[in-house]
Amino acid sequence: MKSWLKKLGVGIIIPGMLLLSACGSASTGNNDGGKKADGIQERTIKAGIGLNEDHPEGLGLKKFSEIVAEKSGGKLTVKPFYSATLGDDQKMTEALQGGLQEITIPSTSPLVGMIKEFGIFDFPFLFNTPEEADAVLDGPVGQKLLEKLPEHGLIGLGYWENGFRQLTNSKHPVEKAEDFQGLKIRTMQNEVHLDAFKELGANPTPMAFSEVFTALESKTVDGQENPLATIKSNKFNEVQDYLSLTGHVYTPFVFLVSKKFWDGLSEEEQTILQDAAVEAGKYQRQISREEDAKAIEEIKESGTKVNEVSAEEKQKMKEVIQPIIDDYSEKFGQDLVDEMMKEIEKVRK
Predict the structure, then answer these.
(1) Which terminal CB of the chain, N or C, has fewer other CB atoms within 10 Å?
(2) How far, in Å, CA of 69 to CA of 87, rounded?
(3) Largest Cα–Cα distance of the chain, in whole Å?
(4) Domains in the chain: how many in total?
């Protein structure tokens, strides 16, 4: 067993920064005849997310909108769209690439089909402490991945927090690796997640996030896995009997801007959006941590049975899925994975 799969904790990420110079001419609501904009122009910016406005991500987006309005003197207006009203993460990301939408803040997992290296963040039981997550996401590894986005029509302004994913289901508590056997679990369409759950004996079932509550209620699937704030804010616990604190995967959000839109902004406008993404991200992480701590008690009060997973059983789960990690390390790039592990080990010393 590798040393980096020893313990499980709660990771907190601090947004990285990526300041890119613009070189194109596209802008929203303004056609400058091919010239890059000067100063701050009147613009309306569509920003969509998959979660609702009461979720920490929604609260972070609201804060971002307020900061942008203040810093631009009201000239830049961010119009938030919540609860996947503009589509799921994949559709909104594609809309950014096509210049039809300006901002979205998806989980990194759906980006793996476009940039395989983002898959390293899907490795189960990766981070033990907040400092480890900070070192990877704010350091050279996180920056390298952001730098791959422009060639795909996207600009990355940093990482926000989604959180550690926990498991709910309607069958029984999951206390040991064997308890996954036969459970039909809704997952994202992500190959690492799918293969890891299969290795544990579960039946992972990819499904759009907007369909999850109905699928749980109708028992089309037995369970799902998401961070606590997402479970609570979407009321999944109301149609699930058990919450098992597996903390099996940590998922960041990545703050994305359409490159077509970005390239038409002035340097002043770019700076406003960059600074606002970082400032709002700090607020978002704080709210996320606070909500995560409160969510367990509120879920318990709702009648859902909550169980911890012992360190010994988590170790057994890690051992079961280690071949999956080894295989994907080669696929995503062993050098990049080794660099990530070195960053984590520096913090652990």
Answers:
(1) C
(2) 25
(3) 64
(4) 1
Query: Dihedral through CA 202, CA 206, CA 207, CA 213, nearest 10?
Result: 20
Domain-located, residue 347: no
Average pLDDT, the chain: 89
Report which secondary-structure segment, H or E, holds 267. helix 267-301
Structural domain harbouring 198: 3-339
CA 94: distance to chain centroid? 17
Residue 284 corresponds to which tokens in the numbers above? Answer: 């978002």
Residue 166 buriedness (CB in 10 A; 0-12 / 13-18 / 19+): buried
Contact status, residue 323 vs residue 195, Cβ threshold 8 Å: no
181 belongs to a structural domain: yes
> Checking DSSP bridges between strand 223-227 and strand 154-169, what pairing results, if any?
antiparallel
- Are the C-beta atoms of 202 and 258 separated by less than 8 Å? no
| Assigned token pair, 328 | 């994907």
Asked if residue 8 lies in contact with residue 249, where contact means CB atoms within 8 angstroms, the answer is no
Place of tokens 């971002």: 64
- 345 domain-assigned: no
CA distance 207 to 185: 10
CATH of the domain at 186: 3.40.190.170
Note the pLDDT tens digit of each residue in 249-301: 999 999 999 999 999 999 999 999 999 999 999 999 889 988 888 999 999 99
The owner of tokens 């987006």 is: 61
CA distance linking residue 235 with residue 52, whole number of Å? 11
**Following DSSP, what letter does each residue of 193-212 receive, concatenated?**
HHHHHHHTT-EEEE--GGGH
Q: State the pTM of this model.
A: 0.86
Cα separation of 254 and 272, whole Å? Answer: 18
Does residue 283 lie within any of the structural domains? yes
